[in-house]
Structure formats: structure tokens, C-alpha cells
Amino acid sequence: MTALRRLPKLAVWKFASCDGCQLSLLDCEDELLQVGRCVELAYFPEATRAALKGPYDLSLVEGSVTTPHDAERILEVRAASKTLVTIGACATAGGIQALRNFKDVKEFVSSVYARPEYIETLAQSTPISAHVKVDFELRGCPIHKGQLIELLAAFLQARTPNIPAYSVCLECKRRGTVCIMVARGTPCLGPATHAGCGAICPAYDRGCYGCFGPMETPTTDALNRLFTSLGMDREDRLRAFRSFNGYAEAFRKESEAVEKET
Ligand code: SF4
Ligand code: SF4
């Protein structure tokens, strides 16, 4: 009798996040049954009733570290995971909640909560890579399900995921969209932003918001100068670089340069 092959155990973890990225896995409607045949959904509170104990072959981690409890829990998740992949802007760059990193979090807590003494939070929202070794980062807010399936396929085939690190501009060209920044002077973060969304916003006449974070070696300083020439004032440029991926290094540094302008 042949022994049954053990399926790799998949775990999906949530930290400070909106759940949008882990829902991308459930959103893989056409591929979901096949995924279920290739991996064992061992830990995924959003989708399963029972949880299996680790160790886990692959952990997908969504969300940023914002509490002392998170900071301890991520160490346990890492210890229980053979491969750990972070998914989404929260996990890879701290997320929109990392806007607190530029301010005094105590001020936010006291103005938002009636009883701030019950709130236990860290001064900063930090990406998972600031706490533990991360084997791969999947960008986006939310991640793209096609890239997620490629990541899972690469894991099962023990190869590097084919996730291009070029900019959104290339995706714009590929779908034949006229550049709205050149043609209409609409500010667009696309030249500095990691591909993955398929350049949706420019296709609907809106500038890119940088959901996938900085591309490899982005020239944010040149883009900042271009934004200025298009008439964007200091506040607008600050907001452009400080959004979902505002704490990602390249966008953070550019926003800090904008902040220092007199
Ligand atoms: S990256 Fe965006 S979609 Fe994903 S969990 Fe964070 S806020 Fe939600
Ligand atoms: S619209 Fe934006 S993303 Fe598209 S080519 Fe122009 S600058 Fe690049």
C-alpha cells in the first residue's frame, strides 16, 4: 500500500489590519478548490472552524505590529513557520496605521478614546520585517490575487515567485493606457510604485495612489520635483507620499524631505 502524501500546512495570521489581504485568498474563486487540494488549511480563523497545531510549512502574515502583544505573538508565529511571507501594505510597510509614526500616538489615543487608560499600544506601527526574518513580501493594499496564486504555486514548486519589481508605468503601457500625467498633467505616483494592480487607476483617469509601495530603486526625488512643476503644493505632496505605504523607506524619506521644505 502506498503511503499518503502529506500536504503542506498553510497558516494565515492576522495582526493590525482590515482583513482585506487575507480575504484575497478567499476571493480566488476559480482557483480556491485547487488550492485546497494542494495545501492543508491548518490555521485560517477567517475561513475554517478548527485550527491545527503547528509547525506550519507556509505562513501568510497580514497586518502590522502595533501592540506589545503583537510584538510577542509574531515571534511565536515565526518560530512555528518554516516559510513566512508577509502580505499587504500593513505587513510589509506598517500600513495606513503607520501614519501615527509621524505624530505622537498618545495625542491620538486621548482624542479618540473616552477611556485612554484602557488602550495598550506601541508608539509606532511597524512592518513584520522589523521584528522577524521574512522570506518574501507580497505588496499591495490589498494584494493582487493573481500574485498570491503565483506565490503559492512557487512555494509548492520550491522556486522563487515571479513577481516583477518594475513600476506601474509598465503596466499602463501594457494595457495601452494614455499617460494621464503627460497628457493631462494629473499627478501620478505610478513611476515610483511597484507593479501589481494592473494600473487600474490611470485607466480610470486617476493618478496612482501607490497602493503597492515603492518599486525597486524609485526616483521619488524626481517625481517630487515633477509634482511641484504640476502645481502641487507642499501639503498635497506630503499627502501623496504618506498614504498606505507612507512608512515604506523610499516614500517615508521623500515625505520627510517635503516636510523640511521651507
Ligand atoms: S494592506 Fe490594505 S487591504 Fe491589506 S489588510 Fe492592510 S489595509 Fe487591508
Ligand atoms: S499614468 Fe501614471 S502609471 Fe501610467 S504611465 Fe503615466 S505616470 Fe506611469
- Give the number of helices: 12
| Overall helicity | 25-40%
Give start-end ranges of low-pLDDT stretches: none
- Cofactors and ligands present? iron/sulfur cluster
Largest sheet, in brief, is:
5 strands, parallel
- Element order: H for helix, E for strand: EHHEEHEHHEHHHHHHH
Radius of gyration: 20 Å
Features:
single chain, 262 residues, alpha/beta, 5-stranded parallel β-sheet, binds iron/sulfur cluster
Report on the structure:
- By secondary structure, the protein is an alpha/beta fold.
- It has twelve helices and five strands.
- Strands 2-1-3-4-5 form a five-stranded parallel sheet, sandwiched between helices.
- Strand 3, helix 3 and strand 4 form a beta-alpha-beta unit.
- Helix 11 runs antiparallel to helix 12.
- The N and C termini lie far apart (77 Å).
- The structure holds iron/sulfur cluster (SF4) (2 copies).
- One iron/sulfur cluster (SF4) binds next to helix 1 and helix 4.
- The site of one iron/sulfur cluster has 11 residues, from helix 1 and helix 4.
Short description:
The protein is an alpha/beta fold and 262 residues long. The protein contains 12 helices and 5 strands. Residues 168-169, 172, 177, 179-181, 188, 190-191, 199, 202, 208 line the site of one iron/sulfur cluster.
Structural topology:
Elements: E1 9-14, H1 20-26, H2 29-38, E2 40-43, E3 56-62, H3 68-79, E4 81-87, H4 89-93, H5 105-112, E5 136-138, H6 145-156, H7 168-174, H8 180-184, H9 200-203, H10 220-229, H11 234-241, H12 249-260
Parallel strand pairs: 1-2, 1-3, 3-4, 4-5
The site of one iron/sulfur cluster has 11 residues, from helix 1 and helix 4.
